[in-house]
Design brief:
The chain has a domain of about 150 residues. The protein is about 60% helix and about 0% strand. The protein contains 14 helices and two strands, in the order αααααααααβααβααα. It is globular and about 65 Å long. The termini are far apart.
């Protein structure tokens, strides 16, 4: 920097003295030798563009292999302390990580093993999303990425607390297919202001928490997807390992859409992805392996949601629980209505 400053001072002096002759290029390189040229030589020949599509990145099978089972660790699924037929041990639902650990290890007034899995999910998943967006040819302003990740963590943490309390209400006889005020263990509470507190807890969990959780999640996935295009038709294929991961990935997104009641957010994201694919196809740009994996996962999710809704279309109890045009029952509601009630 000292050489550059002295060169600048001599140049300014020449201009003031009326000497309009420009310094020779050799003089510039000689004055800045040892600093600027050595640093410039370390720069890449071509910087990645965030404005044009042309991804040639290989399929991130390692990333998708880790990301596919991770959400199942954090989402505990419905659970119950009912006694298994023919066994004195306590049962858990098929989607719960407590299949590995006896429930009696964790009292109701302490975090359960599922809560700890959810805490790990709230830490690992934002880290994976940051690594994913770092590798995307297209990205958002850094401040917007930070705000999205912070909002994601806040929403998932709100859901963690509400979900943990909701599980303990299930142990006491709470029926998830009924509204808060219609539940037998809630409607007779005294004073009645306690019912308002439980409704507030339900709002934090099912509405505010889910919105803060899933909106940044799908936003980051869509931004990453927008950079997964390549001008080479031969690169528009997914390896066999990625195709095998489509099923667990699509099944998890089905669980998010149904249990999280975010069908509108999901269908908007999917149609935006479809519109982007059609738009880029006119430019002769094709999805690479990572884009194909996400698109196939979302397409499978839409198919699973359609089959789920068609199967429960004429259920009168769930119809009452979920009125309106958009009818997407929650798996928990189905579980407490048709599975746990039989035992």
């Amino acid at each position: 920097m000292g050489h550059l400053n002295s060169f600048k001072q001599e140049s300014d002096k020449g201009w003031h003295d009326g000497n309009m002759q420009a310094p020779s290029p050799s003089l510039v390189l000689q004055r800045s030798a040892g600093t600027a040229p050595s640093r410039l030589m370390k720069l890449p020949a071509q910087l990645p563009s965030t404005l044009t599509s042309g991804s040639t990145s290989p399929c991130r099978t390692g990333f998708w292999t880790l990301a596919a089972p991770l959400p199942w660790w954090g989402n505990q699924g419905p659970e119950s302390r009912r006694t298994c037929p023919g066994s004195p041990r306590k049962c858990v639902a098929p989607l719960s990580p407590k299949l590995v650990f006896p429930l009696e290890w964790f009292p109701l007034n302490k975090p359960s093993v599922g809560d700890y899995f959810h805490m790990a999910y709230n830490i690992i998943t934002p880290f994976l999303l940051l690594k994913l967006i770092e590798r995307s040819p297209r990205t958002l302003p850094r401040s917007m990425i930070y705000v999205s990740i912070i909002t994601f963590v806040m929403g998932a943490s709100i859901h963690l607390v509400g979900d943990s309390v909701n599980h303990r209400l299930l142990f006491s006889g709470y029926q998830h297919h009924l509204s808060v005020r219609e539940n037998p263990i809630i409607k007779n509470l005294k004073p009645e202001t306690l019912i308002d507190s439980f409704e507030l807890l339900y709002y934090y969990d099912e509405y505010l928490g889910h919105s803060m959780w899933y909106i940044p999640f799908f936003l980051i996935l869509f931004i990453y997807f927008s950079g997964c295009f390549t001008p080479t038709k031969a690169e528009s294929s997914a390896p066999g390992v990625a195709l095998l991961l489509v099923m667990p990935s699509g099944l998890y997104y089905w669980y998010l859409v149904t249990e999280g009641q975010i069908f509108l957010l999901f269908i908007f994201t999917f149609f935006a992805m479809l519109a982007l694919v059609l738009h880029q196809k006119r430019k002769r740009l094709f999805l690479d392996s990572n884009g194909l994996f996400l698109f196939y996962s979302f397409a499978l999710t839409l198919l699973l949601v359609a089959l789920w809704v068609a199967w429960l279309w004429n259920d009168p109890v769930l119809r009452k629980k979920y009125p309106g045009v958009i009818y997407v029952p929650e798996p928990w509601a189905f579980y407490t209505l048709h599975v746990s009630s039989r035992h």
